[in-house]
UniProtKB/TrEMBL annotation:
Domain Helicase C-terminal span(s) in chain numbering: 233-377
Pfam name, any one: Helicase_C
Alphabetically ordered keywords of this record: ATP-binding, Cytoplasm, Helicase, Hydrolase, Nucleotide-binding
Catalyzed chemical reaction(s): ATP + H2O = ADP + phosphate + H(+)
Low complexity composition-biased segments: 377-391
Organism: Tenacibaculum skagerrakense
A biological process from GO: response to temperature stimulus
Name of protein: DEAD-box ATP-dependent RNA helicase RhpA
């Protein structure tokens, strides 16, 4: 099978050839002809399978063949969950549209919208957007969605995970009822199927890999270690292996920042990318990582879907995600486009339940590995007696101290009960004065 056999125009074939692609991937082979025929599509493909080209190439051809030369209303809208993914798709569109007369733009939050508004006013055929910024600019009457012919929801499952379902429904209400719809998702959960049912009309189901599977070229293994030793283990793994490009995932923004500090203290160049970073800082960190200026990029799951790094050799789960599907997305950053990769997870005792859920999803056992200087199944240091009553009950005191302990306990039992109650009253008073700041965002 060749790209030419898929029915693509020679201008697009030339751009594809310049990108170095000779044979279409399974998702491209299955999706491109169906999209060119004008069908709605419900597509499942794991990350790194070439799905962006799978929908970008056919919509470029459709718009080129039906474009009105006098003006450029937005005719194709691509919605994505993250800024990084939006920027990545836009870059691909620019590469593939080099030899056709198509204008594209990307809009997302975190940057001044003035330049984005100016670009749209000059005419745009294809718009890549995150939901929030798209609604903001629509409310400002900076863009119109009345001429949309094709709607693409990319990483739809991630958009639902991030709470965009209400925004998506608002956007769909602004679009023409007659249009072509393409929904791409790494997983087909009940929520995704419900969303698809409300958007797609007689869709063609396209699957490039079994649902919720990981790339075959990725070697997966776990190291058992307490939380307190994870940073030391990461440093040793990177140093011993002389790794020069490592993507590390943490669950929290503060955890990402702390790990970067520890890595830098050990002369391992690194940067963090998460929701608290400005868009400029995120773009700079990703650029330096791709160019090998820094060795390590530490990210939260907000960036898991938007990182396209060719031939990324190692991914480390510094902390396992509590949603097993996120594990699939994280390790999908390596082993892309047929290249081999390694996914390592550092597992503390309290994360063993996450391991079970991941293994259940993957229907396979994760290999346990050992690292010299670290125990295979270490336990966390025991807590002080004042914070761990259960452990102190199990400890047998020496005979010499038993009498003294019993005497102190009896003598102070009344005072102890009073002391236990006092902090509670104090905490209640303080809690009344504490302003309600709402739930913390830990992504």
């Amino acid at each position: 099978m060749t790209f030419e056999s898929l029915g693509l125009k020679k201008e697009l074939l030339k751009a594809v050839e310049e990108k170095g692609y000779t044979t279409p991937s399974p998702i491209q082979e299955k999706a491109i002809p169906v999209i060119l025929e004008g069908n709605d599509v419900l597509a499942s493909a794991q990350t790194g399978t070439g799905k962006t080209a799978g929908f970008t190439l056919p919509i470029l051809q459709i718009i080129t063949d039906t474009k009105n030369p006098k003006f450029r209303p937005i005719r194709a809208l691509i919605l994505t969950p993250t800024r990084e993914l939006a920027a990545q798709i836009y870059d691909n569109i620019k590469d593939y549209s080099k030899y056709v007369n198509i204008k594209s733009a990307v809009i997302f939050g975190g940057v001044n919208p003035k330049k984005q508004i100016s670009t749209i006013k000059n005419g745009v055929d294809i718009l890549v957007a995150t939901p929030g910024r798209l609604l903001d600019l629509h409310d400002q009457k900076a863009l119109s969605l009345k001429r949309i012919d094709i709607l693409i929801l990319d990483e739809a499952d991630r958009m639902l995970d991030m709470g965009f379902v209400r925004d998506i429904k608002k956007i769909i209400a602004l679009l023409p009822s007659k249009r072509q719809n393409l929904l791409f998702s790494a997983t087909f959960s009940k929520e995704i199927k419900a969303l698809a049912k409300g958007i797609l009309s007689n869709p063609v189901l396209v699957e490039a890999a079994p649902e919720n599977t990981t790339a075959e070229m990725v070697t997966q293994k776990i190291y058992r270690t307490p939380k307190s030793r994870k940073a030391a283990m990461v440093i040793q793994l990177i140093s011993d292996g002389n790794w020069n490009q490592v993507l590390i995932f943490t669950r929290t923004k503060h955890g990402a920042n702390r790990l970067v500090e520890k890595l830098q203290k050990n002369d391992i160049s690194s940067a963090a990318i998460h929701g608290n970073k400005s868009q400029g800082a995120r773009t700079k960190a990703l650029k330096e990582f791709k160019e090998n200026t820094i060795r390590v990029l530490v990210a939260t799951d907000i960036a898991a879907r938007g990182l396209d790094i060719p031939l990324l050799p190692q991914v480390i789960n510094y902390e396992l995600p509590n949603i097993p599907e996120d594990y699939v997305h994280r390790i999908g950053r390596t082993g892309r486009a047929g290249a081999s990769g390694e996914a390592i997870s550092l597992v503390a005792n309290e994360e063993l339940e996450y391991v079970k859920n991941i293994e259940k999803l993957l229907k396979q056992k994760l290999k346990i590995a050992e690292l010299e200087g670290f125990d295979l199944t270490p336990t966390e240091p025991s807590q002080p007696e004042s914070t761990s009553k259960s452990s102190s009950k199990n400890k047998k005191p020496s005979s010499g101290n038993q009498t003294k302990r019993n005497f102190r306990n009896k003598k102070g039992s009344k005072n102890n009960e009073e002391n236990k109650a006092a902090p509670i009253r104090n905490n209640r008073k303080k809690s009344k004065r504490r302003p309600n700041k709402g739930p913390r965002n830990i992504t």
